[in-house]
Each structure stands twice: as structure tokens, then as C-alpha cells.
Design brief:
CATH topology of the largest domain: Spore Coat Polysaccharide Biosynthesis Protein SpsA, Chain A
Shape: elongated
Number of strands: 9
CATH class of the largest domain: Alpha Beta
Largest sheet: 7 strands, mixed
Number of domains: 2
Helix content: 55-70%
Strand order of the largest sheet: 3-2-1-4-7-5-8
Order of helices and strands: EHEHEHEHEEHEHHEEHHHHHHH
Radius of gyration: 26 Å
Structural class: alpha/beta
Distance between the termini: 28 Å
Length: 406
């Protein structure tokens, strides 16, 4: 039963210095809601720190168009604006979209319908699905895909597009999650999604038609820096999500082969980073010391970093308990890697008296790749075996399908 005067959906449009686009796009959005959207919906213009006529124009639109209101925040920050408006809303479902309306509005109903039906908790538009139609500059496409791959490697994220400005959340779920979100700017979306996923909430994805806004105000370099700091913070985070998980979470059924593949992918990502760091360290150290000594020191330094990253990222072990035991066991794996690389160097120098450094690097890289397989096996079965989350046991596909049906 609908409560008179209470919209079922509230769409927040965060704006800062958007006096040129605000009028025509809010009118277009309101017309769509009045003619093509089946649920009562309200539009909230959330002005966060504008210094032009954006707020005054928003006030005029609110007085002219039924179902439009405006909120003024003196401090800037998209996350801050969304958090304040969503926290005080009376709607059942809370959504937001960018003022440029880059996303085709026909995706709005598929976005919010699963939330209104209680099927999902959070919904996001994705520009990275195969069925999405996207017009975007190559630089933006590369940054977006790289960012989402980074989220998968560092935070084990499974959603496909964290940055699309087209999202919705059930109001009851938002009341539980919003107090846990720290970021008040562009990283707000990512943090909200990561917390939702870790709490076992169901995230619905909608492929969208999307056209890049050529007048985008996003400062890419600054935003990238903030995102990287946000990722590092979430990797160290100890937010208690158990109350949310108990109230709304659903257990996610994982195919053990998929879980193992994801673990291998994260291990390989850490390995690529470690190999690059090793090669750089070796070249620096080789300038003033023999090859074997440079190899030993470079391996030792990167081994400690590799164990630390794999402990947290690949195997999901957090906290300080067992950290030194893991490092000591990791050094055993390092010893195996060192013996392989040392043997390869010895064989190279036996065959060639004074090999070029490029040849040394090539041989050592191949030896490191061989040692990687051994290290993963040791990490999986011994180094972190006492503390890492256990991968799900294999079950026949029919059993897995029955489990999903429930």
C-alpha cells in the first residue's frame, strides 16, 4: 500500500557548478518520470558547494516542477551529498544519477524494480557488460577497466563497474550501510559497494547505454590518487559488518573452481608486481655488487613484500595473529625460489663468461616464473593453511544447481 505524499523512489542528482546543464536535464528527467515511469518518484537536486547560480536555478526548478526539491550543502563532495539526502529520505528506494544524464533513462526501471520487489539490495548500472552500448573516449575506457581490475585484484570485488553514475539502494539497507561509509567524495560509490558485497548483500547489475560527457568536471589525476588511498584504507579496514550480514546478507554459493581461479588470478597479480620490483631492485644492486649477491638481496626484499601482499589479498588473512609465522614460512618458499634462480645464474655464467645484464634478467625471470608455481602450492597448502579461508569443496554441478535454486 502506497503512503500518500511519499515517493516509492527518490532520485538524487548531485551537482556542483552545473548552471548550464541543470535546467534542461532536470526537466527532461521529470518529464520521463511523469510519462514513462510506473512508480511515484521524486527528484532531489543536491547542490554541494556550488559557487555559480546552480542553487538559485535549482530553487526555481523546485518551485516550478512538482516532484522536484533542492538541498543545499555548503561543503563539496558527491558522497557527502548522497549520504545526507539518502539518510533523511522517506522513499523505499534511493537512487542517484549524474546531471549530464549520460545513462539512457530507459535503464531506470530495470535498475529499481528488483529493489522494490525485494529481490536485490543494491543495483548498479554497468558500462562494461557485453550488451552495454557505450560511446566513450579511449582514455576514459582504459582508466575505467583498469580501475575495476584493480578492485578485483586488491579487494576481491565481483561487481563489474564501480564508477558508473547510475546506482540505487533499498532505503532500509542504506540506513545500515551509510554510517559505515567514510568517504565523502568520488570513492563513496566504491566503498559502499565493497561493504555491501562483504556483508553478503545482493548486487543487481543493469547493462546501460551510455554516452561520455565531453564537459566532465572530474579531475582524473586527483580522483585516481583518492581512489588508491581509498583502496589502501579498505584493505586495512576492520569494519564490523556482521549486524548487516545477519539482517540482510545472503550466503553466496561459489563454484570451487571459480574460487580457485580467482585466488590464482590474485596470486598472479601480486607475482607480476613482485617480479617487476625484483627486476628493478636487481638492476640497482647489480651496479655495485656481484650478480649472486644482488640476486639474493633483491629476492629477500621482494619475498617479504610478496608474502605480505599474498597474505592479505590472495588468501584473505587479516590481523596480526600469525603474521611472523607466515613470514617465516614464506622465507622457506623464498629459499626454494632463490635456489632455482641461483642455479640458473650459475648455469648461465658457466656457459657464458660475461653475459649481458639483459640476458641475466631474462634467465632470472624465467626461473622466477618456474618458482612461482612451487610458491603458490606452498602458500596454498602450508604457509597460510592454518588461517586462510577454506575454498568450497567440489560438488557435482547438479548439486550446485539445487543449492542455487534455494
Amino acid at each position: 500500500m502506497e503512503i500518500p505524499g511519499h515517493p516509492r523512489v527518490e532520485i538524487v542528482v548531485p551537482v556542483k557548478n552545473e548552471e548550464n546543464d541543470l535546467g534542461p536535464n532536470i526537466r527532461r528527467l521529470r518529464e520521463f518520470l511523469d510519462t514513462a515511469f510506473p512508480f511515484p518518484a521524486e527528484v532531489c537536486i543536491a547542490d554541494n558547494g556550488s559557487t555559480d547560480a546552480t542553487y538559485e536555478l535549482g530553487t526555481l526548478l523546485a518551485s516550478e516542477l512538482p516532484g522536484v526539491r533542492v538541498v543545499r550543502l555548503e561543503q563539496s563532495g558527491r558522497g557527502r551529498a548522497l549520504k545526507q539526502v539518502w539518510s533523511s529520505s522517506t522513499a523505499e528506494v534511493l537512487a542517484y544519477m549524474d546531471v549530464d544524464l549520460s545513462t539512457n533513462l530507459n535503464a531506470l526501471l530495470p535498475l529499481v524494480a528488483p529493489l522494490l520487489a525485494g529481490h536485490s539490495d543494491v543495483a548498479i548500472g554497468t558500462r562494461l557488460a557485453k550488451s552495454s552500448r557505450v560511446v566513450r573516449r579511449p582514455k576514459r575506457e582504459f582508466i575505467s577497466r583498469s580501475y575495476n581490475l584493480l578492485l578485483r585484484a586488491t579487494l576481491s570485488a565481483h561487481f563489474s563497474d564501480a564508477q558508473c553514475g547510475f546506482k540505487a539502494i533499498r532505503a532500509d539497507v542504506a540506513r545500515e550501510l551509510l554510517p559505515l561509509v567514510e568517504d565523502t567524495s568520488w570513492f563513496f560509490d566504491t566503498e559502499l559497494l565493497v561493504l555491501a558485497e562483504k556483508a553478503g548483500l545482493r548486487i543487481h547489475e543493469v547493462p546501460v547505454d551510455w554516452i561520455d560527457d565531453l564537459d566532465s568536471r572530474v579531475a582524473i589525476a586527483k580522483t585516481v590518487g583518492e581512489d588508491l588511498r581509498g583502496i589502501a584504507r579498505l584493505m586495512r579496514s576492520r569494519v564490523d559488518l556482521e549486524p548487516v550480514r545477519q539482517k540482510y546478507g545472503r550466503p553466496r554459493i561459489l563454484d570451487p573452481r571459480t574460487a580457485l581461479a580467482a585466488r590464482v588470478l590474485r596470486f598472479c597479480a601480486v607475482g607480476v608486481l613482485s617480479t617487476a620490483a625484483y627486476a628493478l631492485l636487481y638492476l640497482v644492486l647489480r651496479q655495485g655488487m656481484p650478480a649472486q649477491v644482488a640476486n639474493l638481496l633483491a629476492l629477500l626484499i621482494t619475498a617479504v613484500g610478496n608474502t605480505t601482499l599474498n597474505r592479505r589479498i590472495t588468501f584473505g588473512v587479516t590481523g596480526v595473529e600469525g603474521r611472523w609465522r607466515h613470514q617465516l614460512r614464506g622465507l622457506v618458499a623464498f629459499g626454494i625460489g632463490w635456489s632455482l634462480t641461483a642455479a640458473s645464474l650459475w648455469l648461465l655464467h658457466t656457459a657464458i663468461t660475461a653475459p649481458h645484464q639483459a640476458v641475466e634478467i631474462t634467465v632470472l625471470t624465467i626461473a622466477n616464473l618456474a618458482a612461482t608455481v612451487v610458491r603458490f602450492s606452498l602458500f596454498q597448502t602450508w604457509v597460510f593453511d592454518d588461517d586462510a579461508p577454506t575454498l568450497p569443496a567440489f560438488e557435482p554441478p547438479a548439486v550446485l544447481d539445487q543449492t542455487r535454486s534455494h
